Each structure stands twice: as C-alpha cells, then as structure tokens.
Amino acid sequence: MTIVLIAVALYLVASGLLIAAVRHDAGRQARAWLLPANLAVLLHGAAHFFAWRAAGGADLHFFAALSLVGLGMAALTAIVGASGRMAALGVVVFPLAALMLGAYQFTGHVQHPAPLDWRLQLHAWFALLAYATLAVAALFALMLWLQERALRRREFHGWLRALPPLVELESLLFRTIAVGFALLTATLLTGVLFVENLFAQHLVHKTVLSVLSWLAFGGLLLGRWRYGWRGTTAVRWTLAAMILLVLAFFGSKFVLELVLRRT
Predict the structure, then answer these.
(1) Are residues 108 and 139 in the same domain?
(2) 88 and 123 fall within a common domain
(3) Which of 26, 52, 87, 187 could tie 81 with a disulfide, CB 3.0–4.6 Å?
C-alpha cells in the first residue's frame, strides 16, 4: 500500500511539473519531471512484483493487466520524453498510470492466480507491451490531430510550443506504430503457437478483433509506405485500429471476468 501511494504521488508530481513547464513555455527544455517519473515507474513495477511474490504467481486479470499497460505507457513516455521529444505526453500518461495503479491496488488482487507456463507468459507479455506501445501511438495521433486543427484555425496556444514540429510528431507516430505492430505480430504468432483451444479458453472474439486491429495497423503502415498517408488519414486509421485492440483485450476481459465471473 505504501509503495502504491508513493508511486501515485510521484506520478502526479511529475505531471504537475510538466504542466508548469508548459505554462512557463519551458516545454521541451524542462527536466525536473524526470526524477519523480522514473521513481514512480520503478515503484509501480515493484508493487506488481511484491504482489505477485505474495500470491505465488503473476496476476494478469483485468485490473492487473490495466495497471501493467499503464506501467508500460509511463515507462515509454519517460524514455521518449527524456530525449526532449514529447515530454508533454506525460501530462496525460502519468495521471492515467496513477489511476490504473490505484484501481489495481484498491479493487483487490487475485490471491491465487492460475499458473501459466513460460509460453503463455511470453504471449501475455508480448500482448501487454504491444497494447502499451500502441496506446501511446494513439495518444500521439490525438495530439497530431489537435496540433493540425489548431494550426489550420491559426490558434497558436501555449501548449503547441511544448510539442515537436508537426513533421517530427508524425514521424514519431509512425515509428511507434511500427514498433507496436511488430509486438502485436509477435503476440498473434505466440498465440497461434501456444494457445491450445480457442473455444474452451473463450478466445475466439479476442482473436478476431486482434487480427482486425493487426490488419488495420498493417494497412496504415502499408499506406504510409506506398501512398504517403499522413495527417487526418493516419489519425483515423490509428484510432480505429486502437479501438479494435481495446475491445479485443480489455473489452473481452471486462465481460468475462467482471460480468460473467470467468477466468
């Protein structure tokens, strides 16, 4: 509990420092947020480690998985933001990570999680990394849309100066999607190789939606390479693919675990 509360507080401190930097036009030059953000990420991971050690296995149920995705998003934001490219993303990601960690802590842990062999654990970790990376890409897409919209309307808000130039942000978006697409591909491949029975394990709908999301992300990358897709087209494809992915994983886990009480 203490570790969780400290991590949540540090996430909020990092977010507050970033907001202050944006307001004072420090934007990409600000570095004060890095220490609390990195400490929060480390404590976030430690909270899961100690919870799993106490339970005797990895808890990957709904709120635990949600918290792990938040951890991945926060870690990726800290890594990308440390280079001065998109530190402002932490204004959104760090409070989300704090909320997800708090939800995991206060909704109760699974006391005796079902054991998973190394193959299914590998599949699960690929999935969580893919979701975290592509969720960050979706946030990049939203910021790209807001930036383009503000520039078209000649609304030069202060927060625009905290973002990279439009071309750089777009490049960062597609590189993040490419990494997430590779991780999602690994997720689907390990699922095909290691999952034994899609019907008995209630995985048909999850698989179908994940494949549709994979096709959408792949189509976007192909469109970028072949036709030079960008701007609003890229934003729409990214968000549509991410919605499919959220429904595939968290939508299905919500229904199965919280509504139908199945694991």
Answers:
(1) no
(2) no
(3) 87
Q: What is the domain range of residue 13?
A: 1-113
pLDDT digits 0-9 by tens, 67-104? 999 999 999 988 887 776 666 788 889 999 999 999 88
Q: pLDDT tens for residues 153-201?
A: 776 666 666 677 788 889 989 999 999 999 999 999 988 776 655 544 5
Give the pair of three-digit tokens for residue 197: 């029975």
3-state SS assignment for residue 61: coil
Residue type, 74: A
Cα–Cα–Cα angle for 200, 205, 209, rounded to 5 degrees:
145
Cα four-point dihedral sign 120, 121, 122, 124: positive
Instruction: From residue 152, give the alpha-carbon distance in Å to each of 73, 229, 234.
Output: 30, 19, 17
171: exposed, middle or buried (C-beta count within 10 Å: 0-12, 13-18, 19+)? middle
Which 3 state secondary structure label does DSSP give 255?
A: helix
Q: Are residues 107 and 126 in the same domain?
A: no
Question: How long a stretch of residues is the chain?
Answer: 263
Residue 53 CA to residue 59 CA, distance in Å, equals 10
| Gap between the Cα atoms of 169 and 165, Å rounded | 6
